[in-house]
Specification:
The protein has about 280 residues and is mostly beta strands. The protein folds into 2 domains: about 120 residues, Immunoglobulin-like, CATH 2.60.40; about 100 residues, no CATH class. The protein is built from 2 helices and 16 strands.
């Protein structure tokens, strides 16, 4: 009898819609750092870039506000000092030339912004080369999604050391960003189960279809264990899905410290890394 009484109430509740206005606490504005010193082949000018933004209100559309007017310096632990200047046509992007990184050196980023000094240090780690880049055509299916070509790589993991990887995909020079539950364990990886092994037929972006004639590049970036854990936490926050076993919402702390006021933390991560890259044109089927 109790079930009969509850059912009409449930059906009645499901048949109406109620709009509830919720005030969201915006919180303090934080500096967001996207900084990377890269050792990559073909970078003869030693050009490096660092992007600074700030957090914004919860319901704002569009890109985050650029952090303008910062003073940025990178030192390399061997006496090298490199000031970064803001690019006039790209607010919030700071660039420097003449930085030719060396594996094993520690690079320190210092940022002075709105009265606070921020700092982060990271050792530049080596990465295995990509042996080959090619494309495989897959028909539409439940596991792989739309039919089309996927970028595929082979590489050999160095034996006897802990290696962590991040893969980036660019199509006609434009980055493809696809962080979702289907590939969160493919874009980053640790070699715990394949140390020293040869990896063949790997598709870091197995859900990204590329078209014949497009120029595709895959970048293989060395991560430290700290950087790997940071990216893993980012992916958990953005792909959790809200289920009962998802990570609870929280700010992900990077390696950028506020030396002036430790309570006013910065977001983001400063990384120094070797990058291996392969580029190819998608063939016709």
């Amino acid at each position: 009898m109790k079930a009969i009484l509850v059912l009409p109430l449930f059906l009645a509740a499901a048949g109406c819609t109620r709009v509830v206005d919720i005030e969201v606490d915006q919180g303090p504005v934080r500096l967001v750092v996207e900084g990377r010193i890269e050792l990559r082949a073909g970078n003869s000018t030693g050009h490096q870039e660092i992007r600074l933004t700030t957090t914004d209100v919860f319901d704002r559309a569009g890109p985050p506000p650029p952090a303008r007017g910062a003073v940025i310096m990178v030192t390399d632990g061997a006496g090298g000092t490199f000031p970064f200047a803001e690019v006039a046509a790209r607010p919030g992007v700071y660039a420097a030339d003449g930085i030719h990184p060396v594996v094993g050196r520690r690079y320190t980023l210092t940022i002075d912004f709105q009265g606070d000094r921020y700092q982060a240090t990271h050792e530049l780690l080596p990465v295995a080369p990509i042996d080959s880049l090619y494309f495989e055509f897959e028909e539409e299916g439940l596991a792989q999604g739309d039919s089309g070509f996927r970028a595929v790589i082979d590489y050999t993991d160095p034996a006897g050391r802990d290696d962590y990887y991040l893969w980036e995909l660019r199509v006609d020079g434009v980055p493809r960003i696809a962080v979702d539950p289907g590939n969160r364990f493919r874009i980053i990886s640790e070699d715990r189960f394949y140390d020293g092994g040869r990896v063949v037929g790997y598709q870091p972006y197995d859900e990204e279809v590329v078209d014949p004639g497009q120029r595709v590049s895959v970048r293989q970036v060395a991560l430290s264990e700290t950087a790997f854990r940071y990216y893993f936490a980012i992916f958990e926050q953005t792909t959790g899905g809200g289920g009962p076993f998802s990570a609870p919402p929280a700010s992900v702390r990077g390696n950028v410290a506020n030396l002036t006021d430790p309570a006013r933390v910065a977001l983001g991560f400063f990384l120094a890394a070797q990058v291996a890259e392969r580029e190819a044109v998608v063939p016709t089927r």
